[in-house]
Amino acid sequence: MVSDLLSQSSVRLVTLTGPGGMGKTRLSLELGQQLFDRFPDGVFFVDLAPITDPALVASTIAHAMGVREGGGRPPFENLRDFLADKTVLIILDNMEQVIAAAPMVAGLLAAGPSVKLIATSRIPLQIRGEREYPLATLPVPPADTFLSLEDLQSYEAVRLFVRRAQAVKPSFELTTENAAAVVDICRRLDGLPLALEIVATRLRMLSPNAILKRLDRSLKLLVGGAADLPTRQQTMRGTIDWSYDLLRPEEQTLFACLGVFVGGFTMPAVEVICNPGDTLDIFTGLEVLLSNSLVRQIESPREEPHFAMLQTIRDYALEKLEADGELDAVRLAHAQYFYQYAVDEWSEINGPHATEAMALVEEDHDNFRAAMSWGLEPGNDLMIASYICVFLAWFWYRYGYFQEGREWADRVMAATESTTSPARILATIAAAMMAMWQGDLDVADERIVRSLGLALAGDFDLGVTISHFVYGINLVNQGRDRESYAQLMQAAERFDQGDSGWDKGNALIHLANATLGLGELATAETWLQQAQPLVEQIGDPGRSPSA
Questions:
Q1: What is the DSSP string of 258-320?
Q2: What is the 3-state secondary structure (H, E, C) of 188-245?
């Protein structure tokens, strides 16, 4: 057992390996619960499925563990220091798509003698000290052997199928009439947990014998599937294919479109991105996909329900979308939606409901990342990447994504370098902000001076206002109070023309700081008195984005 392995002092890393659908994630969560009392400093689950860049693994782990970034240090160094005296268990789920981060994982183990790790991956990490634990398929009853109903239910595959069947049809029981069909289903699906769960949901409409007949006709390997994939993984793809074939055409269209979302989605987002012609019944379609285990509902702070796809199923949906020739159009619609989201939420993220707005941005962070990635692709709209980047800068500050935010901002700035467009101005502002918050004040100075000059030359009011604001903050941080005062006065006057009380209030607070540095106490008090009602309406004045 894995729990016994981890009980050994010499075992620091156990990697659960196996193809998709094997239940690696579920087992890792169960192990975390079993071992919780052995790790007084906590058990932490880190979902790596939404990311594909190995450089983001350290910051993702740090965020999951509540380790804030700061001081311009790489996330890994903060993690290493945090773990030095801790007794913790870290579960890294879906390592295979960021396998290049394996040396960093080895560094985490070296951070402290009481740090242990569980990784789930389709391939081993191949680092020193790793103990691979390949997951076998669930045991199924042997063929051509008569077993009693009690004996049949001693096999995990049968138990899982019956349990999932009863979840969708409480009256279902394993009987002498249906036992043979149930056993054949378990065998045909090779005991794959996810495949069994998907097929069991069909018991809403079909008997086990009817399901078995459909499996005989429809469970085939995907056309063009990689020949070197494990047989069970090909069968898993066939199982999803079969479940997809049972959907009506409009449900298939919706299912394929949902693959564009990363990390999750809401019904309003689906309505805009997947139903531009208002030809689909989104509510009914999602209900069908939910009941067929192709979509799952997840917890959310939103009033609207929030949904997600398992990664294996999302990959399949994207393949269908591409095969239909719709992938490019849907990715464009997705990027445009989240760009408009950023435009619409600008005042919210800086208004009375900022805390709530930030929580929703956190929930859609992966979709914003995907939209920026789309904008950075050759020939696509750099304004989408730039605007989202400067919009997320405040969020990255608040939620501690300093290193990731800086890397995004630097990438977007580099992509816009050959233009003088608003996209370049916004990207440069975002890059200046992230440099400032990591303590690189000279770099921030150079960038914000550049953005201000470009914005003035291009008569880009938003860029001018934010540049004055950020420039003033950075000058305060350097003790250059008189220069800061001039910049912040410009920003405060410009914010007068807008509708964001937080922007105005925050500018006045920094203006007061600069005034204090000049020794003008009475004037500073005046600025603070003007700022007070503006920041109080936000309810969180402590989130001012200073260094």
A1: HTT-SS-EEHHHHHHHH-TTS-S-HHHHHHHHHHTTSSEEE--SSSS-EEE--HHHHHHHHHH
A2: HCCCCHHHHHHHHHHHHCCCHHHHHHHHHHHCCCCCCCCCCCCHHHHHHHHHHHHHHH
> Looking at the DSSP assignment, which residues form a beta bridge with residue 89?
43, 116
Q: How many helices and strands (H and E) does the chain possess?
A: 26, 8
Question: Of all residues in the chain, what percent are helix, strand and coil, respectively (each to 5)?
Answer: 65, 5, 30
Q: What percentage of the chain has pLDDT greater than the value 70?
A: 90
Instruction: Read off the pTM.
Output: 0.77
- Is 505's pLDDT higher than 80? no
Could you tell me the two tokens for 248? 């009506």
Instruction: Flag whether pLDDT at 547 surpasses 60.
Output: no
Q: Judge whether residue 69 has pLDDT over 80.
A: no
Report the C-alpha gap between 484 and 351 in whole angstroms: 24
Residue of 505, 443, 502 whose CA lies nearest to 477: 443
At residue 397, does pLDDT exceed 60? yes
* Maximum pairwise Cα distance, the chain: 93
Question: What number is the average pLDDT over the span 191-208?
Answer: 85
Distance CA 401, CA 348 (A): 20
Mean local confidence (pLDDT), 267-292: 92
* CA distances from residue 269 to 115, 375, 379 in whole angstroms, order as listed: 40, 19, 25
Which is it for the CA torsion 350, 356, 362, 368, positive or negative? negative
Residue 377 has pLDDT above 80, yes or no: yes
φ and ψ of 450, to 5 deg: -65, -45
Of 220, 5, 195, 225, the C-alpha closest to 117 is: 5
Q: How far is residue 197's CA from residue 481's CA, in Å, rounded to a whole number? A: 64
Evaluate whether 60 touches 43 at the Cβ level (below 8 Å).
no
348: CB partners within 8 A, 6+ apart? 354, 357
Q: 542 falls in which pLDDT band (50, 70, 90)?
A: very low
Residues with Cβ < 8 Å from 113, sequence gap 6 or more?
none
* SS3 state of residue 19: coil
Q: Which residues of 122-132 are buried (b: 16+ CB within 10 A; e: fewer)?
A: bebbebeebee
Q: For residue 500, name the pLDDT band (cuts at 50, 70, 90).
A: low
Q: Phi and psi for 300 in degrees, rounded to 5?
A: -155, 145
CA atoms of 138 and 133, how far apart (whole Å): 15
